[in-house]
Amino acid sequence: MIRMAPIPPQNTTADATSDLLALLAYGNLAAFGRTAADADLAPDLALKSAMARLAAHHYRRHEHLVERLTSAGLDAQTAMAPFVPPIDAFHARTLPDDWPEALLKAYVGEGIVADFAAVSQAFTTRSVPVAPVDTSFLGEAIEAELAADPAIAGRLALWGRRVVGEALSQAQRVAADRPDLADLAASVREEPTDGAALTRVSALLHDLTARYEERVAALGLTS
Asked: pTM of this prediction?
């Protein structure tokens, strides 16, 4: 079992906001590297180009968030450092073996990013926001893979469950170590949950899981 040192706790709303910016900044940097690597698995130039555009989008988001951290008087590298272990652990434990797995991981990841859109918009768009990127190709490409080889559906369903499970596991770790950040993230739920930060973030993670199940069901996969 990999053991990682706990993330040092912080206690103010300002710190929680900075943490959110830093978490998203490193998350996008890691996603850039992973997506660029996964582009090499694409079976044709059109999909390779689409994955490259997605990777470039993540890097632009990273730069935008670093700019926000810097404008707040923070050292971006220092601010991001505590979130490197959980995010790197997620990617290390969910390395795709082939193109369909890479596609589904990207699809799941982009869905989670979309679910946190309210958080990122509330706390990261004081400067010019990064233009959105079209990710519809991910679902279309997965559907094409399933149509070409229906036998992979069961494997992909298990893989998707593993990816989202690991994402939620690392999110719970961050929430436990930084309850103010967890409380800030949970505050965007449409139906607020009373109680401690961990209770509220558990409800948020339940929401994310439900949305994931809806997305994979739309692809014809059972979660």
From this structure: 0.82
